[in-house]
Amino acid sequence: MERSAVFVIPFMAGFVFALTVLAVRYLWWLRGLRKQAPGKLPAVLFSHKTLSAINEIFNEAILHRRILKRNRRMGFMHMSLAVGWGMMILGGKFETWFHTGRFFHDTWYAVFFRYFEPQVVGGLAGAFWLHYMDLGLLVVLSGVTLAVIKRIKKKVLGIKNTTRHSRVNRLALTFLWLVFPLRLLAEAVTFGQYGGGGFLTGTLGKLCFTSPMCAVVELPLWWAYSLVLGAFFVVLPFSRYLHIPTEMVLILLRHWGLRASTELKPEEGLQAFEVHACSACGMCLDVCPAIGQQPFQAAYFMQAIRSGKGWEKMATDCLSCGACENACPVNIGIENMRVAARGKVHQDYMAKHDYLPTLSTRERRSANILLFTGCMGRLKPGITEAVKQLLEEAGLSWVHLDEKDSICCGRPMALAGRTDQAATMRAANEALIGSYRAGMLVTTCPICLNQFRNEYKLNIPVVHHSELLWQLMSEGRIKTETGLECFSYHDPCELGRKGGHYNEPRELLSACGNLLPVDREKSESLCCGNTPGSLSLSLKDRQNITAATLKVLEAPHPDKIVTACPLCQHNLSRQSKVPVKDIAEVLAGVLISTSTQAHYTHEAETIEA
Amino acid sequence: MNIPQDKKYDVVIIGGGFSGLSTAVVLAERGISVAVFEKDEKPGGHLSRWHHLFPHGQEASELLGELYSKVKHLDIPVFTGRKITGIRLLSGVNMLMDGDEVLAYAMAVVLAAGFRLFDAQRKEEYGYGLYPSVLTAAEVEAVFRKERPWPFDSSCEQPRIAFVHCVGSRDLKCGVAHCSKLCCITAVKQAIAVKQAFPKSQVWCFYMDLRMHGLEYEELYRRAQVEYGVRFIRGRLSEASPGQGGTLHVKAEDTLLGKPIRMQLDMLVLMAGMVPAVDLQRSIGKIVLEEPSFGSGFISVTGYPLSVQVAGHPGIYAVGTCKGPAVLPEVMADACAVAREVENYVKSIKEPQYVQA
Amino acid sequence: MSRPDFGFSWSGARALDPSQPLSSEVQKVLDGEPGLLDCISCGQCAAVCTAGAYTSMSFYRVVLHLLRGETKEASMMSHGCMLCGKCRMTCPRGVNIHNAVMLISALMHTKA
């Protein structure tokens, strides 16, 4: 059938425009690539890494498995949009190939195939493609329906918050929502007039659009479809829908070994792809401990970074608890980006640590354990005393490294975006730790723990006291009475999400009494409200976050709230009605003491490991 | 409503401390029938646990004894060990409840719930509850009253003792925004008493601002400096840790010299501030007396300073330290003012033609 | 060049003049950390200070210098800070000290 193709011009214009802008932007972002991976790229292109990247693209960009795992309804919404649209793009290609015998056509031909060829049938196989295309459309429409419902009634989708979008994103959203109903109508009218069609478009056409009067609206509908699709492509490179192609490229680049810069460069390298791979899906909203109080959730932070406006306060206010990164279906390095942004905000910040003492000249002492309680340790003598009591009970010798004065581990400095300065402190502490002979370094502060573990070069293992205590308890070296006390446990972000220790404190608490389930725990836990990450959040705002967290912890009516970080304990205990204790204090409280037999010396006689 | 006569009073006072008993006495002297409910086993409140009073050193028990004899003389019923958990207003009568049980009926209720001492354990860095030589001011009074020993070796002739002002006062982190007002003078009084007990002792007061607002307080402060050699250091103590031989090692900053302080102590006294004892949960026709939570304030009254009525509840009044930190003379004056207003209220109900005095 | 001898000498003025308006750079710091105005110079920050054990770092004095217009002194004093955040934990007024330190120590950097 010969029909005029003028109406495809808007679509083609938009499509070409989008491709051009994408190509320019991607090339611009990739300009810094050579510096990062000199000469390595060609070799990696044809390695198994590309295959595993494609696998991840299929799982995440199409099937959206990570979202499905978190929230089935939200996952289905994302999946149906991607899968349905993918089915239609792919099916369109095959359908035209099948009917014309040629693989290559003008781009628009497959998109508007049914306008040009409403009557081709092609036997059983042709019917398959008709129904297959309709199925794709139905899947997308189910996704669009869910998306509309989500905007009207979030609860139906099992979420409490949806992202508030910028104007351009709302525009793009409107276009996207209109694309598929318009295609349905256009095809239905065409099939109504000419007969045929799949189970969806054909049936609709037969039911509603057989009247000759409807012929008048056929071409205008195809025009509208083309216009809306074209408009969507025009706004795509400037809206959050840029994530659709960008996420796929990001996955590839990541598998090829590229890492994001530690400086804030939202238009360069992998970071640019990360920034634009954020779809503002909103999975980071409900998990944020400050949701409803603060505007800095990752989706908004990314939005601000993209627009270049207002990201500064979002970076310095955020508490860096890591809940958003944990929930992000695209695995964007949000934490790293916030730290980088803080560094940028305070780029003029001057620090001089040339005064730091060299402590390695001390005589070399040995002990089973080097105990480091961190800066907070002195403010929490209860925790330190309890740990010492337990070590004594287990017959271990220790040296308390920072009993008098200490040097900060450097993590707060690093979290403020100044890794260079953190290195100075690291060197000083490494020298101090290296001047002892010991089996392990035990720290009561999970913040120090992560810094020691990930940034320091130490030749002894670094453990959190909860790990050590659980090991001692499993070995029967400390024994406790199992009381009737009920505990709710607060996972410190640095020990849980960032350190990966969820079980040891729980095992210990179960051995001391009743561990109650809490609404938000383990990787979903809330924030104590005062971390070294947040630089600028006001006291009142911090206290509000603490109060919200306490509400959840107090809900199961525990006798004690227990945590394993001196910072969390400090913040929670100031505001809580229920006593807040460290895991070591709880343990020491129910310890069955065998101190009469225990032989304890400050100086070690034996060294483990 | 059928009101049992033995439970019916003109006025019921919640709290049998100094403010409650004083108000009761003033009211009873004016012919108003009044009953006092006290949650503890004996009346007297914080005052009963105090040894002597600033600025003249009068024995607390002496003052309380006078008050008790007046209560006895006026035949005021004082119900001890009875805790009122709420008030219900029904057809103009206030019902004083303990859970679902009605303890009394009254035309007017006076809240004299007093204050609580800030839980010094919340300031964990001072090691209260962890190190035996860290005491609160209230515990030092108990030492003066010979109810507990000094926390250091009694043979020690030259104990080193420091007082920390503003523990749980003026501390937004602890949800306490206010100045507790009388810790400054209490610390001066206790420092002098320690000096009297151990003339060779060394005594320091770590303060942020010294607020000597009352009659003769400034003179007491001067005498502490000059006659007793108490030393005043402007700076907040930051932390305490175990020192050598059962002593305490403390860190502070001398903010006037701008130098850090590191010293050993034999006793550390925390001047724990005054915080609300109850939190009023108000709804129509009902007030529930609850445990205060983080940041909850003292009881607020309408029309302050002209009126003393609890906001939005006719017939409910508040007296004394449940409205905020106050010293004894202020509480006494307040008791008279509240009693006058309560009397007017009661009489205007009893005799509608009564014109307020 | 030697000064002419007038038969007396003088040194630079020691006196502060609090009536001078705050400079724009000080105002910028105050805008960046409004909590600074909450400071009551109690000294808790200095008493707990990790860096204070080794240097003259004393945050409440940094604030005093800043509010009196002595930006150089304020900035130099804060360079030694390790940002450990212990001071913020204990500050009774909840001042975001490490934020303020980062802003104040940048003052000398921008001048250089």
Automatic annotation (TrEMBL), chain C:
Q: How far does the signal peptide extend, from start to end residue?
A: none
Gene3D superfamilies of this UniProt entry?
Answer: 3.30.70.20
Per the database entry, which stretches of residues form a coiled coil? none
Q: Give the record's keywords alphabetically.
A: Iron, Iron-sulfur, Metal-binding
Superkingdom of source:
Bacteria
Q: Which InterPro entries match?
A: 4Fe4S_Fe-S-bd (IPR017896), 4Fe4S_Fe_S_CS (IPR017900)
Residues in 4Fe-4S ferredoxin-type domain copies: 28-60
**What are the GO MF terms of this UniProt record?**
iron-sulfur cluster binding; metal ion binding
The name under which this protein is listed is 4Fe-4S dicluster domain-containing protein
